[in-house]
C-alpha cells in the first residue's frame, strides 16, 4: 500500500496534466467516471494515502489499497480501473478504489492531520492521542485520522527510531516521549520521500523486514500486532514497553 510520501511523488509526476482538459475516460470502475470527459483538471491534491483529481464541481479520489498502482504514458497488463486521456498523454490507475466526491474538499478532509501537509498540526495530533489513552502505539501510527499518510513502513521505522515498543499504550508514554513520537512521524515521512525519490529507501530501513537490531545486535521480532494485524518488526530489547 503506497504511503503518504509515495502519493506526493505521484502528485509531482502528473503536474504536466494540471489545467488540461480530459479528452477521454475509460476503465472498469462502475462509477459514472465518464462525467470527467471534457472537463478541465483544476488541481491535483493529496491527503495521506488519498490522491485527489480536482475538477470544478467534483473531485475523483484514488486510494491504492494494498495492491493498487499507476502508469503515466505507459500500459501494463490488465484493464485499468480508471484511465484519463489528454492531448499530451494519459494516466492509468490499476486495482485501486475510485470514489467521486461532490462536496468541497475542505469540507471532507482535515488537512491538519496530513503529516506531509503545510497545514500539519502536531498539537491537534497530540489532542487526538490524549483522547485515546488505551490505544496501542502500533495502532496510533496507522490511524489516518491522527497521522494521515503514515503506513506500515513508517510505523515500524518511527517506533524503532523512538525506541518505543509497538504494544505500548499511548496513555502510558511520558509527555516527552509522546512529543518525540509525534515529531518523528513527520520527520521520517520526509526522509522517506527523499530516499524514495533517490531509489534508496530500502537501504535506509533500520527495522522494517530486518532480522538483526542495528543497535544491540540482537534478533528483531516479527509479529502481527494491533487491531490491524499488520506486520510489525521491532527490537524487544531496545524498544521499551510503556504499559
From TrEMBL:
<keyword id="KW-0863">Zinc-finger</keyword>
<keyword id="KW-0238">DNA-binding</keyword>
<feature type="domain" description="FPG-type">
    <location>
        <begin position="206"/>
        <end position="240"/>
    </location>
</feature>
<comment type="similarity">
    <text>Belongs to the FPG family.</text>
</comment>
<keyword id="KW-0326">Glycosidase</keyword>
<feature type="domain" description="Formamidopyrimidine-DNA glycosylase catalytic">
    <location>
        <begin position="2"/>
        <end position="89"/>
    </location>
</feature>
<dbReference type="InterPro" id="IPR015886">
    <property type="entry name" value="H2TH_FPG"/>
</dbReference>
<keyword id="KW-0540">Nuclease</keyword>
<keyword id="KW-0234">DNA repair</keyword>
<keyword id="KW-0378">Hydrolase</keyword>
<keyword id="KW-0862">Zinc</keyword>
<dbReference type="InterPro" id="IPR012319">
    <property type="entry name" value="FPG_cat"/>
</dbReference>
<dbReference type="Pfam" id="PF06831">
    <property type="entry name" value="H2TH"/>
</dbReference>
<dbReference type="InterPro" id="IPR035937">
    <property type="entry name" value="FPG_N"/>
</dbReference>
<dbReference type="InterPro" id="IPR000214">
    <property type="entry name" value="Znf_DNA_glyclase/AP_lyase"/>
</dbReference>
<dbReference type="InterPro" id="IPR010979">
    <property type="entry name" value="Ribosomal_uS13-like_H2TH"/>
</dbReference>
<keyword id="KW-0255">Endonuclease</keyword>
<dbReference type="GO" id="GO:0004519">
    <property type="term" value="F:endonuclease activity"/>
</dbReference>
<keyword id="KW-0227">DNA damage</keyword>
<protein>
    <submittedName>
        <fullName>Endonuclease</fullName>
    </submittedName>
</protein>
<keyword id="KW-0511">Multifunctional enzyme</keyword>
<keyword id="KW-0456">Lyase</keyword>
<keyword id="KW-0479">Metal-binding</keyword>
Amino acid at each position: 500500500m503506497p504511503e503518504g510520501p509515495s502519493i506526493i511523488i505521484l502528485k509531482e509526476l502528473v503536474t504536466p496534466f494540471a489545467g488540461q482538459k480530459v479528452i477521454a475516460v475509460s476503465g472498469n470502475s462502475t462509477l459514472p467516471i465518464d462525467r470527467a470527459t471534457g472537463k478541465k483538471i483544476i488541481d491535483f491534491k493529496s491527503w495521506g494515502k488519498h490522491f485527489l483529481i480536482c475538477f470544478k464541481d467534483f473531485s475523483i479520489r484514488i486510494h491504492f489499497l494494498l495492491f493498487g498502482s499507476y502508469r503515466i504514458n505507459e500500459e501494463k497488463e490488465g484493464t485499468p480501473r480508471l484511465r484519463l486521456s489528454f492531448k499530451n498523454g494519459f494516466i492509468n490507475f490499476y486495482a485501486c478504489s475510485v470514489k467521486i466526491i461532490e462536496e468541497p474538499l475542505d469540507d471532507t478532509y482535515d488537512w491538519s492531520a496530513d503529516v506531509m501537509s503545510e497545514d500539519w498540526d502536531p498539537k491537534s495530533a497530540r489532542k487526538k492521542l490524549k483522547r485515546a489513552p488505551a490505544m496501542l502505539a502500533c495502532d496510533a501510527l496507522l490511524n489516518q485520522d491522527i497521522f494521515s499518510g503514515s503506513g506500515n513502513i513508517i510505523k515500524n521505522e518511527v517506533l524503532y527510531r523512538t525506541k518505543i515498543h509497538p504494544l505500548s499504550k499511548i496513555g502510558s508514554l511520558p509527555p516527552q516521549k509522546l512529543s518525540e513520537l509525534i515529531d518523528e512521524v513527520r520527520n521520517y515521512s520526509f526522509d522517506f520521500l527523499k530516499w524514495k525519490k533517490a531509489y534508496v529507501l530500502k537501504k535506509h530501513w533500520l527495522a522494517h523486514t530486518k532480522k538483526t537490531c542495528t543497535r544491540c545486535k540482537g534478533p528483531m521480532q516479527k509479529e502481527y500486532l494491533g487491531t490491524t494485524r499488520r506486520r510489525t518488526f521491532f527490537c524487544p530489547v531496545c524498544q521499551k514497553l510503556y504499559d
